[in-house]
Design brief:
Layout (H helix, E strand, L loop, with lengths): L8 H29 L2 H22 L2 H6 L8 H17 L1 H7 L7 H29 L3 H26 L2 H24 L9 H17 L1 H26 L7 H21 L2 H11 L3 H38 L7 H26 L7 H22 L1 H35 L1
Length: 427
């Protein structure tokens, strides 16, 4: 049980930062490697796979992580969380083909489907790992989760490059990558988890644990709906671009270019992952009714994300596309405005995520459901039309509109929730 010991806050933050940098960096490097070493058509398929997998992994995780990591009173056992994750992963598998059909993906394009399917499996390994990371977080040992992420994503990036060099096949390379990721999760994350809590699926307690797992999923439905709609909204431009490519309105490589320009948004969300240890602290402060400290941390998170984000937006407009052009070997300089809009939208998204996590801490996540509904409506009203008329710039403008709804709606929902809480305390 040597790992079940308190460690310094600095160590937790260091490894959490390093792990999330490895996660974010792997996404960029995956795209860079595939862009450099495959055809524009395969790079388009990979970019589409990236978006679809991001949606389906939300189903696999069912957004339980925030709930699990802030369950500081240990209301549910790790066994129950594990059963809940098994149920959500089965659901992730079940909706794979229905989602492709709904998204109007041509199932006759076998190589595209294979690339999508394998990348979804790669993210499925991540969903399993996330279960154990939630356990480490609940025990205030996010340093172990950070080490796991650092090792797994760093090795995955190197192996993708090596496999592509050897096989010259993206499909084969992804297949080997998937197998090795599953092996790593069960040989590292699972083994480490047993030093804290064990999965005890016994016949005697199975019914109780199953009902408890269902209760966990039920409590996380608002989080799941919000996460799914967010991922869906993020992927809407990719679906519209794929349709335009099939119709011959956009050239091959357009999907790839959008994925590259969208990456800074992904990095904006990295700041929230870096701040994740604070959510467990917030849960403890909320439980102890230390509201001044609670509000001070939220204000600190808001200022950090906004400040860093504004600096990044200016830099993105001034030097972003030349750097991306140099790194990826593509002519992207004409997209400087598109990139700046996407980066600023990423700020709004990140602040929305901050308040979404806070609403989970105070167990008022249902207040966010109307916000996500309005976001979905805004996406449907703007995305296809703007993409068809303005291409990648239209995609960025649609995303900005939707993230503006998210930002303003999340803040409003939080202030309403806190106002109601103050009334409850007064009584």
């Amino acid at each position: 049980m040597k790992n079940n010991q308190p460690v310094s806050t600095e160590k937790v933050y260091f490894w959490n930062l390093l792990g999330n940098l490895a996660f974010a960096g792997s996404s960029v490097l995956f795209t860079l490697i595939v862009t450099r070493m495959t055809s524009p058509m395969e790079a388009d398929s990979f970019s589409l796979a990236y978006g679809i997998a991001a949606i389906l992994v939300v189903v696999g995780m069912f957004q339980v992580r925030s709930y699990q990591g802030t369950d500081v009173l240990f209301r549910h056992s790790f066994t129950s969380y594990s059963i809940a994750r098994c149920i959500s992963i089965l659901l992730m598998i079940a909706i794979f083909f229905p989602y492709l059909l709904v998204s109007r993906i041509d199932l006759h394009e076998s190589s595209k489907i294979a690339i999508i399917g394998l990348y979804v499996l790669f993210r499925m390994a991540e969903a399993i790992s996330d279960l154990f990371q939630g356990l480490f977080q609940r025990h205030e040992r996010l340093d172990i989760a950070g080490k796991s992420m650092t090792i797994r994503y760093s090795i995955s990036t190197i192996l993708l490059l090596v496999f592509l060099l050897i096989t010259k096949s993206l499909i084969q390379s992804l297949l080997y990558l998937v197998l090795l990721n599953f092996i790593f999760v069960f040989s590292y994350d699972y083994v480490k988890s047993k030093e804290f809590e064990s999965i005890d699926v016994s016949v005697r307690n199975l019914k109780r644990d199953l009902f408890d797992a269902i209760a966990i999923l039920k409590n996380c439905i608002p989080l799941f709906i919000s996460g799914f709609l967010l991922a869906y909204i993020f992927n809407e431009p990719r679906i519209a671009i794929d349709s335009e490519i099939r119709l011959g309105h956009f050239i091959a490589g357009t999907q790839r270019d959008y994925n590259i320009l969208f990456m800074p948004v992904f990095f904006m969300s990295l700041f929230i992952l870096i701040l994740r240890p604070l959510t467990t602290q917030l849960a403890i402060l909320w439980k102890n009714k230390e509201l001044k400290k609670f509000d001070a941390i939220i204000a600190k998170m808001f200022v950090i994300v906004l400040g860093v984000g504004l600096v990044l937006t200016v830099l993105a407009y001034l030097i972003g596309t030349p750097i991306l052009s140099l790194v990826f070997g593509l002519p992207l300089n004409q997209h400087s405005t598109t990139l700046a809009i996407l980066v600023f939208s990423g700020i709004l998204y990140s602040i929305g995520i901050v308040f979404g996590d806070v609403m989970t801490v105070i167990r008022k996540q249902t207040y966010l459901l109307p916000v996500y509904l309005f976001m979905f409506i805004a996406s449907k009203l703007t995305n296809n039309n703007l993409v068809q008329k303005m291409g990648l710039l239209g995609a960025s403008l649609s995303f900005f509109i939707v993230m503006s709804v998210y930002f303003s709606g999340s803040l409003l929902a939080y202030f309403i929730a806190r106002k109601i809480e103050r009334k409850d305390y007064a009584h």
